[in-house]
Amino acid sequence: MPYDFRKPIKLSREHVRTLQLAFENYARSCGTLLTTRLRAVSNVALASIEQLNYDEYVASLDNPTVLAVVVLDPLPGSALMQVASSAAMTAIDHMLGGPGGPQPERPMTEVEMPLLRGLLERMLGELRYGFETLVDLHPKLKEIEYNAQFLRTHQPGDACVVASFDLKIGAEETQASICLPFNSILPVLSKIETVVLSQAERNAKDMAMRNLTAGLSSAPLDVAVRFQPIRMRTDDIVDLRPGDVVPLGHPTSQPLEVIVSETVFAHAVPGNQGARLACLVVPAPQESSSKESGRP
To answer: What pTM, to 2 d.p., does this model score?
Structure first.
């Protein structure tokens, strides 16, 4: 994969799996909350988890959109919860007894803003339960903005972990997202070295390890034994004929090299076993010389 120097630290597979479990728990509880609070069938499903720079995340958002700036005590920094404006208007319409459906694009009124703020605070409460196995979060809603360009919570090049969700409220289908500062969530993930696996997952992992080990142990390799290389002129090589003798210049006291894919892994001396040519693996020349020099 191409290496991105703007993202020198990447989430490991274990970290992504840990976040996936936490956000899936959050999505289930948040879907239940919206259904009971809005009295409309709602569903929240985790779509993806990815690492982005803050400017990349902002560029992917619609304008206008509902952006909640959240303080995640005891973690440092600020997180963002984003909900599409159409979904926010639909939720408010349901809370006021309306049928939902298409909503006008307009700013929130003084009556609607407290309703939206209360709903977002309830959704943040579910985030605490989703992450309770990782860290004791106390999310607090700080402010609500409609244009990400006006926010100054992060630097453009700051790394973030973005969880995207498929959000459905009644007939309204849209997307929402949560943006966590990478430097804030990484220490929490680093404490979770291993993911708790079920017995079936452990058995599958052990079986895969055994199959991999057996496959590597039985893989055929081309092994060669070679003398030291020599240098020849081009015209001498062109003039070679059957029966010509080429002196190799390999010292008789020096063993040959045993190689695989141009990698020397042993040394050997030539010989034969019955009618077949063979070689006997011997210690490397450096080891032999060091042992001889160490004799009294």
So the answer is: 0.60
